[in-house]
Amino acid sequence: MTIDRQSFPPLDTSKAHPARVYDWLLGGKDNYPVDEAVAEKLPPEARDAARQNREFMHRASAWLAEQGVDQFLDIGTGIPTQPNLHQIVQGIAPSAKVVYTDNDPIVLRHAEALLVSSPEGVTDYIQADVRRPQDIVEHARHVLDFSRPIALSLIALMHFIPDEQDAHSIVRNLVGTLPSGSYLVLSHASSDVYPELSAQVTAEYAKGGIQLGFRTRAEVERFFDGLDLVAPGLVTATEWFRSDRAPEQEGSGIYAGVARVR
C-alpha cells in the first residue's frame, strides 16, 4: 500500500498532541516544543508509565498471536516505536493482518514505516478518531475479516476521552462489531492507585490543552462489561503476563486487561 503524500493534512504544532507527548516520554524525536513543554512538567513516573504501556502491549499481543489470533485492530497507534505491534505478532504469525489508527497527522507521515509488513502478512493505516468508531470499522472491514476473531487494541487511549464524551459507549460500540472469540486489549491510567500523581499529570496536560479522564479501577472494569477477562484479570500493567517469565515487578498507575468476546 502506498501513501499519497499530497493528501497529508496540515500539522498543528501550536497545540500539544497526546501521541507526540507520548513519543517524547518514550525518548522519541518526533515531537515539537509544545509537546516537550507538557512532557517536561510531568513527574518522572510518566516515563515509567509510557514504557510499562508498551511492554504490556508487547506481552498481550504476543500471547494473542500464540493463541492463533491473526487479525489486530490497533486504535490510538501513536508514532512508530520499535518494535511495533505488527512486528510482534508477525514474528509469531507471519500472515497476521494489522490495521493501525490514529488521529494525529504526524502518525500518517510515518505510516510507511508502519506498513512494512512481513511478506505473508498485511498492515494498513487509517487516520481517524476513536470518537467516530463507525469510520474506523468501515475502513477496517476492507482489510480484516469480521467473521473471524479480531484483537481490538486500545492502549493508553481511553483516558483521553472524558466521561462527557461517553468513553464506555465508544468501546461498547467497537466491541459490538467483533465476532465471538475476539479480544479487547486495554490499558488505562488510574485515578486511584497514586491519586496525587494522577492529579498532577491531569493538571499539567490540561495546561497544554489536553483534557484527561483518569478512572478508578471500577470505572476501568466497566470497559470489560459482558466480556470474559483473561487471567490475571484487571491488574496493573506490570502485573499482567501469561508466560512463566514474569516481568520485573514495579509500581504502576496503569490498569491493564485482556478479555474475550463471548
How many helices does DSSP assign? 10
Tell me about the biggest sheet? 8 strands, mixed
Instruction: Indicate the structural class.
Output: alpha/beta
Could you name the CATH homologous superfamily? Vaccinia Virus protein VP39
What is the CATH-assigned architecture?
Answer: 3-Layer(aba) Sandwich
Our count of domains comes out at 1
**CATH class descriptor name:** Alpha Beta
GO molecular function, one term: methyltransferase activity
Pfam families: Methyltransf_19 (PF04672)
Organism: Streptomyces triticiradicis
Protein name: SAM-dependent methyltransferase
Q: Which features would summarize this protein structure in a list?
A:
disordered N terminus; globular; 34% helix; 262 residues; 8 strands; alpha/beta
